[in-house]
Amino acid sequence: MKLMAPDYYGRFRCIADRCRHSCCIGWEIDIDPDTREKYRHIQGAFGKRLNEGIEDTPEGAHFRLLQDERCPMLNKNGLCDLITTIGEQHLCQICADHPRFRNFFSERTEVGLGMCCEAAAALILQSREPVQFVALEEAQEQLTDDEEDLLALRSHLIAILQNRTLPLEQRLEQVLKETQFPLPTLDWHKIYSDLERLDDAWDTVIAQLRGKDLSLPCPISYALQIPLEQFAVYMLWRHMPAALEDGDMQGHAAFCVLSVKVLAALCMGNPTLEHCIEAARMYSSEIEYSQENMDALLDALWSE
Length: 304
Fold this sequence. Notes:
It is a single chain. By secondary structure, the chain is α+β, with helices and mostly antiparallel strands. The chain is built from 14 helices and 7 strands. A 4-stranded mixed sheet has the order 5-6-1-7, with helices on one face.
């Protein structure tokens, strides 16, 4: 099985207690069955506290969040007591993996870093060189025709996005032209406002979409040309493989372009890298980690 990743993948490091948006707050943390069984056998006062902080349901186990929605293992210093007490090797699968994601092909696995993590968003958007994709594990691979077609199209679209002789605005329009999928003229502010909400602060952020026609080329400040290029490439790397399930390569490519245009609009009043990183983190948390929201946006793209 071949394992592929963006070249920045190995440079990721969790910033732990320095994180302003901890993944240990506000998210239901599922515990895989193998790890749950290991936790049952941890002895002593810590083992008692650990198991009392877990809720077992017919659907599986998860940590029982405290009143402030903190994981019971997250201490007041922003560190995980499970790691500091018995070691990182005892993390459940979801905690060990986060913010990593995987896409599976017949004989290939692709991995990446989800931008809902502020450290991952900063790593990706601060990179200056065009992203390359490298093999972490080399192996012969025999892919299906559909997989070959998708990879060829995605590589072509990424090459368009990384052509820095053109402004990013033109590159985005070229991607839409190549996939023959112009963005529909819709009230995107209303569409995004009607989506499932994780953080109420998102309403204030997306208010900047009001009155914006995203079917037109979007103005992008010079300072954000490269960060938004990196965001666009990230989106294609992460979301194009979903077309293997539904056959909608055009729609998934258009969703990626739409997402870049939305992020550009959210940064129009404050075109700094720091603001862009935070807006990207919020966008990822609100949209990418909700299948309901993803489906609603794909439906909207096809509405015309």
